Amino acid sequence: MSVAYLPHKTATQPPEQPHNAQQAELHPELNHAHVRFIGVTKTYQGQQGPVQALHGIDLAIQRGEVFGIIGRSGAGKSSLIRTINRLEQPSGGRVLIDQVDIGDFDEDRLVELRRRIGMIFQHFNLMSAKTVWQNVELPLKVAGVPKEQRERKVRELLELVGLKDKHKAYPAQLSGGQKQRVGIARALVHDPAILLCDEATSALDPETTQSILGLLKQINQRLGLTIILITHEMAVIRDICDRVVVLEHGHIVEQGPVWEVFGNPQHEVSKTLLAPLQHGLPEELQNRLQSQPKSSDAAVVLRVQFTGRTSDEPDLAALFSTLGGRVRLLHGGVERIQGHALGQLLLAVSGSSLGAEEQRLRAQHFLHKQWTQQVEVLGYVV
Amino acid sequence: MWFDRLLQGVIDTFLMVGVSSLIALLAGIPLAVILVTSGKGGIYEAPRLNSVLGAFVNLFRSIPFLILMVALIPFTRLIVGTTYGVWAAVVPLTIAATPFFARIAEVSLREVDHGLIEAAQAMGCRRWHIVWHVLLPEALPGIVGGFTITLVTMINSSAMAGAIGAGGLGDIAYRYGYQRFDSQIMLTVIVLLVILVAAIQLGGDRLARVLNKR
User: Fold this and answer.
1) Which of A85, A150, B100, B111 is 20 to 30 A from A14 in CA distance terms?
2) Which residue ranges does the record assign to the ABC transmembrane type-1 domain (chain B) (predicted)?
């Protein structure tokens, strides 16, 4: 009996990618990631030749976390989130859900997969010809769920989203926030393990946004499902996400826990996106700001930022005394994200015997012990 | 005597328009669904089928009804065994009405927001689910409006068929009004046609409005 005649099986299979194997070894948590992207690329046929929307995205999303993907429009967020339920077919790379590659799923397996993944949309995408009840019932109906079971489930979900009394209304009769609640009920009707949110609050006013985000947070905690959301609003990320990636031109440019990315953004894009949340200089002061001191009594304007564990905020009196002179607070505040405090102070220091650079170093040195900090000299005012 | 003749004419017109429009409805909706779903980016994308079908529909749409009717005479004889009377008119009427209605229904189906199809896919709908639970219900008000237009157009065409011996109101108007200069009958036929068209239009509009929940 000769084995040599048997075809060499392994030769036809793609070689194991050493990079990924190594990564899995170094980061054991990757092996039980809920959703994992490995070198995912996406190319569209545009009018002026191919357009690459995603460049080799590597990412692992853990079970039960609220994961944010942020970027400017056209950054590839939409394409990325749609590869998870294969509304978008990646051009290259793999998407694993519970360690299973979904790339070669046929229609049957895809339908089964999509019933485990709910999705809500920016423009709600409710069927206009169906009532609220029928909209929420539709996913169950097409799955062939028996009537009594459907009724129980729809009632339960309308109750969860607080629309029990609206079940006979048509979407056109609802407000934006109510429509999104119907969307959420519809997305959850199959008890999915993952909820995808595609700019789910971008068409809503700030107050409604807060209530929808609150509902999502509640669902995440009560049902323990993984929420993956894309947005261009940093406030959404701040309010409910655990971790965030920043996407730009189809590349991941920054990622980490939200408090870290917020407290100390590294990339230019992250800083731009964060800008609306930061307190700038008052306009009147901005106009008077000079880059060089015109006279000896000009005050130094400092921006002091610090990030650290809460319940141990810095002693401001002590900080001010290290600067010497008279310290005025122009603007200041502390935000709390995930048990971390992110503080920002705008100070005007006058009559100090120390130079601006010396003041900056002293403030840094003072905060350095317990805080991640950043101190910069913005300029001088008379 | 002439009242009986008019009544028979109304019944014949109803028969011709009713039967041909009913067949057009049953054949036109599937045709429209195929035209929409097989198109570029459709859920059953099939470019070749789409262009062949599209060309076929355009062909029949571009032939004036009077010429189509005459050209189809051999085919009509094959199907109903005669080229004279109500049933002989139903054949060319159906063949004219089906592509006409299919094109109008196609426009309504195409106007269904792509986001709804995406949402249906995301919730685990199979493709035929999308046709049945999303495309058709969402396009229904538009399809009803389109069918109203088809009915009115078929009344128009059936009158033309009357001229080559199909019976109906058109036949009466042609024989008595045109060939015998009986303007009273001509006027009566016109009034009847106006009432008929107005009733259909009114009913169709009302139904479309009730169905439209947007």
Assistant:
1) A85
2) 10-202
- Whole-angstrom CA distances from A46 to A43, A52, A89, A247, B40 are 9, 9, 16, 21, 15
Per CATH, which fold does B2-211 belong to?
Answer: MetI-like fold (1.10.3720)
Distance CA B60, CA A201 (A): 49
pLDDT tens per residue across span A27-71: 666 778 999 999 999 999 888 889 999 999 999 999 999 999 999
Q: How far apart are CA A128 and CA A259, in angstroms?
A: 40
B41 touches chain A (CB under 8 A): no
Q: CA A236, A238, A239, A243 torsion: positive or negative? A: positive
Q: Give pLDDT tens digits for A153-182.
A: 999 999 999 999 999 999 999 999 999 999
Position A18 pLDDT exceeds 80: no
CA dihedral sign, ordered B58, B62, B66, B68: negative
Chain B, 118 to 177: residues with Cβ < 8 Å from chain A are: 118-127, 129, 133-134, 137-138, 140
pTM comes to: 0.85
Give Cβ neighbours of residue A25 (< 8 Å, ≥ 6 apart).
none
How many Å lie between the alpha carbon of B175 and the closest alpha carbon of chain A?
A: 48
Q: Which domains does chain A have, with CATH numbers?
A: 61-93+103-276 (3.40.50.300), 283-381 (3.30.70.260)
Any A CB within 8 A of B201 CB: no
Residues 6+ apart with CB under 8 A from A141: A150, B133
pLDDT above 60 (res A125) = yes
Triad A132, A136, A137: Cα angle to 5°: 110
Q: Which chain A residues touch B214 with a CB distance below 8 Å? A: 128, 172
d(CA B92, CA B74): 11
Q: How far is A304 from chain B (nearest CA, A)?
A: 46
Question: Using CB atoms, which residue from A121, A128, A143 is nearest to B213?
Answer: A128
Q: Among the listed ranges A118-132, A317-331, B22-36, B138-152, which one has the minimum average pLDDT value?
A: A317-331
Q: Which of B44, B121, B123 to mutate to test the interface with A (most CBs of A within 10 A)?
A: B123
Q: Which of A8-22, A303-317, A353-367, B141-155 has the highest mean pLDDT?
A: B141-155
Domain boundaries, chain B: 2-211
Query: How big is the CA angle at A124 (ends A118 and A130), to the nearest 5 degrees?
Result: 95
Q: Coil, helix or strand for A51?
A: strand
Write down the ipTM of this complex.
0.89
Residues of A in contact with B119 (CB under 8 A): 119, 121, 125-126
Question: Chain A closest CA to B142's CA: distance in Å?
Answer: 12
